[in-house]
Each structure stands twice: as C-alpha cells, then as structure tokens.
Amino acid sequence: MRALIYTGPNQMVLTEQPVPVPEAGEVLVRVSDVGICGSDMHAYHGHDDRRPPPLVLGHEAAGVIASGPREGERVAINPLVVDPDCPIARAGRPHLSPSRAIISMPPRPGAFAEYVAIPERNLLPVPEGMRLRDAALSEPIAVSWHAMRIGLERLGAPRPRVLVQGGGAIGLGAALVARHMGAEVIDVAEPHPGRRALLDTEPGITGFDPLSHDPGESAYDLIIDAVGAVATRQAASRLVRPGGVIVHVGLLPGSDGYDIRRITLQEITITGSYCYTPADFAAALDALDKGCLGALGWVSTRPLADGPKAFADLEAGVVSAAKIILSLTSGPDDFPMGN
To answer: Does residue 171 sit in the same domain as residue 51?
Structure first.
C-alpha cells in the first residue's frame, strides 16, 4: 500500500508499506481522507519523542471498513485506543486512562496510508450524504468541542464573551463550537493575516492581530488557549475577567507565563483540556453532518502524493487554510457506498 512516512526531521517520503494485519477485535479501514494535525507537524520538526522515525503519522481520518461483517461501511475513526475495562474509562473519561494510545504513535501506525488497523469499537458510522472529507474533521472538532464544553461547564454562565487564542484548526474549531453553543462575543487572536481573512468569512466571529490590538484587561469571561505559549498565557491572565475561566489546550513546551497573583486574587480558574470523550467525538460528527459549524471553507484538500509539499508549505507558513486534508480517493469526494 502507499504510505507517507516520516523518516526524520523535516522529511516525509511517499513509499510502499505492507498492509496492516488487524489483531483480535480490530478491522482494516481503507482510508479516504486524513488531516494534518499540529502534533504531526511537531513530530515533523523532530520535537516529539513519542513519534520516532520512521513512522506513519496521521490520526484525523475517515474511510471505509475493508474487512469483517461491516465491510463497506463508511466510518469516522476515533484514533484514541483505550482499554475499555480501565476503571477511568468505565467512569466515562477514557481520554484520561493510563492505557490510552493513539494511532500514529508506536506501536500503532497512523492513517497517512491506504489502510489502517483500528479496534472496531473506535469506528463511528458516517451519516448518508455526508462527505468523508468532512467526517475526517470529527477528530479535531472533537478536541475543540471538549475544550469549549468543559470551559462552559466550569464558567457556569450563559452567553459568555469568549476569546480563542490561535486561529489554527483547533482554535477556529473552538470558535465555531462557541458560536454553536450560543456565545455572545467570539474573538480570535491570530497574527497570520491569511487566517484572519478566513475568520472574517465566519458570521459572528471576529479575528484580530494580538501584536497590534489589545482588547483590554478583563475583556472576556472564557479564554481558550489553543497555542499554549508563554505570550498567550500572559495575555490570558490579563484578559480574563475576575471569576473567569482559562482552558489550556495548546501543547507547546514550557509552563511559564501565568500571573499567579492575579489568578489567585481574582479566583480565576485554569483547566487543561486533552482530547475528548466518545460523546464529544459523536457530537462533533453530528454537528458537522448537520451543518452546525458552517460551510467549512477553511479546509484545503490535497492528494496524498502532495503530502511532502503540504508539510513543507505548513513549515514555511505559506498556508492560510486552517486545515489541510490529504485525500486518497481517485474522485473529488469519497469512496462510493460499499466500495
């Protein structure tokens, strides 16, 4: 099968690999569409010890079941593999289970390939009429959905003023989910002009350059930090109102930046947000299917063969799209039903 292999820092190679052999409880999925995630880029830079080369990356995927009783069914792949008998998983928080593993980390190859093996319980049926390209967005949208959901739960106030830091896929997704969940104000701090232009096409969402615009102290009830840098932590500490909530999603290294004195004196809540629950994933797929998150004009699709250039373009900062999806289909959309 064709597979895009991460072979070393800043190196992606399209080559032939053996088709995976499903283990007990797993099925083989013929991949249709797979997104490039920020974690894939982190590995591409050689900064992720959890993803050593050579390795098939990619975990934001949808395709068609190629083996077993459900052969031919179109599915979205939940890439987070967890022992279902883990007590934490049984308590409804499988994403926090110590057994958690994700495809694109050893020993599980990822989905930048024609086929991927995955436990059958990790597959969600794609509704009839929904494009598999859009279904592949379920994973990043689920990350955004989970962050916004827990932020709103901790805030406990309706129609909040929301700031999202970062206009990449997770940040933009969080803004779209905030709009869907009824936020009164939704601003996105994003220095890249191309991404700000995309934000301007989304009703109810306003993008601004944090390098030149200051919303003012205590301007927001809820802040989603989809960057996780020292500068965004510093800004969040100042921009959140007393009693407000900061949700930290970004995974950049380091822990500096928070104004602990202000956070203490103003009883500001900071919470981490990692991945999603199965319910978050299902909700994201449903919202995408029903068009609740808009026209998805922020997605760019390229063939798998252009994968190396897509990574290089992202590295060079010349991509305005919030998400690049690599397609493995011969047609413009999906595999036909039952193929």
So the answer is: no
Give per-residue pLDDT as tens, 95-129.
999 999 999 999 999 999 999 999 999 999 999 99
Residue 336 is predicted with a pLDDT of 34
C-alpha to C-alpha distance for 319 and 222, rounded to whole angstroms = 28
End-to-end CA distance of the chain: 17
SS3 62: strand
Angle 78-79-81 from CA coordinates, rounded to 5°: 100
For 168-194, how does the pLDDT look when each residue is reduced to its tens digit (9 = 90+)?
A: 999 999 999 999 999 999 999 999 999
Query: Above 90 in pLDDT, residue 309?
Result: yes
The range of the structural domain enclosing residue 321 comes to: 2-137+296-327
CA atoms within 13 A on the CB side of 30: 19
Give the tens place of pLDDT for each residue, 130-160.
999 999 999 999 999 999 999 999 999 999 9
How far is it, in rounded angstroms, from Cα 335 to Cα 32?
7
In 3-state terms, what secondary structure has residue 269? strand
> What is the CATH classification number for the domain harbouring 178?
3.40.50.720
Does the residue 207 lie in any domain? yes
